[in-house]
């Protein structure tokens, strides 16, 4: 599948199916969706079993449904279950928002950070630590959601030229706002040691130490984002043809772009609020999904969400065991493993051709 062709313009559809690949061989399937759902459940169970204290499958299933006063029950219900739920939810949100971003912007290298949402959430957390002396990860969530929302709306307002925001203006506005937020963050944390000490544990991206209350705080935003995703996803295929062609086919490009941006804001904001900024997942998951099902975004979006949940959970499990008794944060594992894996995927599958 060729995503970028030489001479393509901002108004031309980027996703194209290679003539050598039959549509039948590269189409979505409910069977594959079922397999991915089963893989998500398996990853969740593995996350409950694996860690510094290993728990057998039989013991894990027993205490999961019948909690008692044993150490295994405490580990699962107080530590691993909230962590696993957050990982699955955040992975799903980042995968879906990455697919939306790439479809809405017609840019195969886009990810949720393209709108500056991650940097905006990070800036809000830094300001909360610096000015209000907030120290609880649960409290970070509210400020991160606020920062993500303000940033997304700011980018949308800046990029809203006549006819609505275009892929080019969205990218430029997102890059500008991200650079501004990053500069403010750097100026604060380099001048205040206590803020840096707290912020550096959040910014690497991790589900460790988050209680189930963090999930319930962000769950309404994630659910709202998924509802908007269901509404705007069917029109993404037509948006690939350009605004004029989509309008001629009965689609309102401005409305669907607006709904897509709101969905990305809610999903990415909730994910960043819960676990901090986690890079690469929103970029890689949609590419893997397109490799499996072709360019039809009605399949790409759910595939990307399920793949995101699987990849993030496996990365967290790997971080627990890769360093022996220590633990590597999932954001670091995603950067170390996701980068080379994505390069290999691009070179072997020819997903992107510049």
UniProtKB/TrEMBL annotation:
Biological process according to GO: siderophore-iron import into cell
GO MF term (any one): transmembrane transporter activity
Residue ranges crossing the lipid bilayer per the database entry: 30-50, 84-101, 113-132, 139-158, 170-193, 214-238, 258-285, 297-322, 328-346
Residue stretches of biased makeup (Polar residues): 8-23
Locations listed in the record: Cell membrane
Membrane topology recorded in Swiss-Prot or TrEMBL: Multi-pass membrane protein
Keyword field: Cell membrane, Membrane, Transmembrane, Transmembrane helix, Transport
Main subcellular localisation: membrane
Pfam family, one: FecCD
GO cellular component terms attached to this protein's record: plasma membrane
Region called Disordered, residue ranges: 1-23
UniProt xrefs under InterPro entries: ABC_BtuC-like, ABC_transptr_permease_BtuC
PANTHER family named in the record: FE(3+) DICITRATE TRANSPORT SYSTEM PERMEASE PROTEIN FECC-RELATED, FERRIC ENTEROBACTIN TRANSPORT SYSTEM PERMEASE PROTEIN
Family: Belongs to the binding-protein-dependent transport system permease family. FecCD subfamily.
Protein name: Iron ABC transporter permease
Organism: Flexivirga endophytica
